[in-house]
Amino acid sequence: MKHAIVLLSGGLDSATTLAIARSQGYETYALSFDYGQRHKRELEAAKKIAKWLAAKKHLVVEIDNQIFGGSALTDEIDVPKSRSDKEIASGIPVTYVPARNTIFLAHALAWAETIGAGHIFIGANAIDYSGYPDCRPEFMALFETLANLATKAGVEGARLQIHAPLIKMSKADIIRKAAELNVDLSLTHSCYDPLPDGRACGECDSCLLRQKGFREAGVKDPIRYASDRVTP
Known about the structure:
The protein is of the alpha/beta class and about 230 residues long.
């Protein structure tokens, strides 16, 4: 059986990516990170998703948040709320975490080489996303090149592949794919600034993109939001 490391944040994109890897016949090893993020509730979601989708193993790796300053997700910076589609699509927002995907993929690469897995899956998306530079196809292609230059496995001919199956899909298409694969999206968590009781704020960029995706997909969002005014 083919083995794959799957980066699993606990959101709907990474849950769908894990389901895709599984549907393609991979034995999956899920990898999540505790890096001091304010939306740490996503790790609870990741554990439930890994179990639901029968990952062979699920690791939660701690990364010292001292290296991840300057982001609204890790620092004392307000998470942007109630932005328009145009505002979300323009520029790199303060929720960008410096070099996050590079660091996450480097950890996945190390684990992949350790267990002899030739594949890494990541739920990056370059269509309905918040302008993060490490979610672009160019980045994925270059990281794959690096992976095969910088590892013993790569040098010895055991080529490693980076898979980003959602990279060119809209959020609505991702939700439809999740439904096709019977992913329980009620287990997922997308909000950057959840309430203490776990409800999504309904106003951050991630919540707004999620709501937009469900509306366009014609599917009811199964999670709870902070206000009844939110109509996903």
